[in-house]
């Protein structure tokens, strides 16, 4: 009996996440309510709160799943470099930003707006997303450190990683708020600016 209950709980959670993904995409984060998600998932609204204390935590769980899958898919990339350091970082960023394609730019703009609101779930969401950012930057730092022999001069991996993070964040904001910018243009700009960071520091 307990096995059946656990299976039902697991299925409820899957249904909730699938419904949330669909409705967030269709209506946006701000315009989506937990009641809408519950109705689509065919569960009570209170049931959702048994798994997710807020709408922000539900969204964060979706992102966490995406990032976990990306981390799994990127194991070979992170541990196997061939050639150019900047290309390796850009390739990693290409993989890590793949989930941008799952949602419209208007959806991502709503997420940015949600993260500026002074409400508890927005604070929780910001902390969680920054945590995911930190994990991604650890991968960048690993790439830099494992390619230390590429540098002409000693490079502080922590400072280099922070600079790369600043460039990635700036270009991400530009991409999300500029409807005319394509994903290819975004990645090209990212590559150029990361290359600028390491200009004069890399061996030919």
Report on this model:
There is one protein chain. α6 packs antiparallel against α10 and α9 runs antiparallel to α10. The chain is mainly α and 204 residues long. The model has no long low-confidence stretch (mean pLDDT 83). The chain has ten helices and no strands.
Quick overview of this protein structure:
This protein is mainly α and 204 residues long.
What is the count of DSSP helices, taking H or I runs of 4+ residues?
10
Order of helices and strands: HHHHHHHHHH
Report strand %: under 5%
N→C terminal distance? 66 Å
User: What is the CATH architecture assignment of the largest domain?
Assistant: Orthogonal Bundle
Q: Give the averaged pLDDT, no decimals.
A: 83
Task: Outline the biggest β-sheet.
Answer: none
Spans of at least 5 consecutive residues with low confidence: none
Helix content percent band: over 70%
What is the number of beta strands? 0
Instruction: Please tell me what the overall shape is.
Output: elongated
What would CATH call the class of the largest domain?
Mainly Alpha
Measured on Cα atoms, how large is the radius of gyration?
A: 20 Å
Task: Give the helix/strand class.
Answer: mainly alpha
CATH topology tier name of the largest domain:
Tetracycline Repressor, domain 2
| Total domain units | 2
């Amino acid at each position: 009996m307990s096995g059946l209950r656990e299976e039902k709980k697991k299925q409820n959670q899957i249904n909730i996440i699938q419904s949330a993904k669909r409705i967030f995409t269709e209506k946006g984060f701000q315009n989506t309510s937990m009641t809408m998600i519950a109705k689509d998932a065919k569960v009570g609204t209170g049931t959702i709160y048994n798994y997710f204390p807020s709408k922000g935590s539900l969204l964060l769980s979706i992102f966490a799943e995406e990032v976990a899958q990306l981390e799994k898919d990127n194991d070979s990339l992170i541990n196997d470099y061939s050639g150019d350091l900047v290309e390796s970082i850009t390739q990693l960023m290409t993989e890590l930003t793949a989930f941008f394609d799952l949602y419209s730019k208007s959806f991502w703009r709503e997420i940015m707006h949600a993260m500026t609101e002074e409400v508890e779930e927005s604070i929780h969401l910001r902390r969680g997303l920054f945590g995911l950012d930190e994990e991604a930057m650890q991968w960048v730092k690993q790439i830099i450190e494992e390619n230390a022999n590429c540098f002409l001069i000693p490079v502080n991996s922590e400072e280099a990683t922070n600079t790369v993070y600043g460039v990635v964040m700036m270009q991400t904001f530009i991409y999300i708020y500029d409807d005319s910018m394509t994903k290819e243009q975004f990645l090209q700009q990212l590559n150029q600016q990361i290359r600028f960071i390491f200009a004069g520091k890399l061996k030919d």
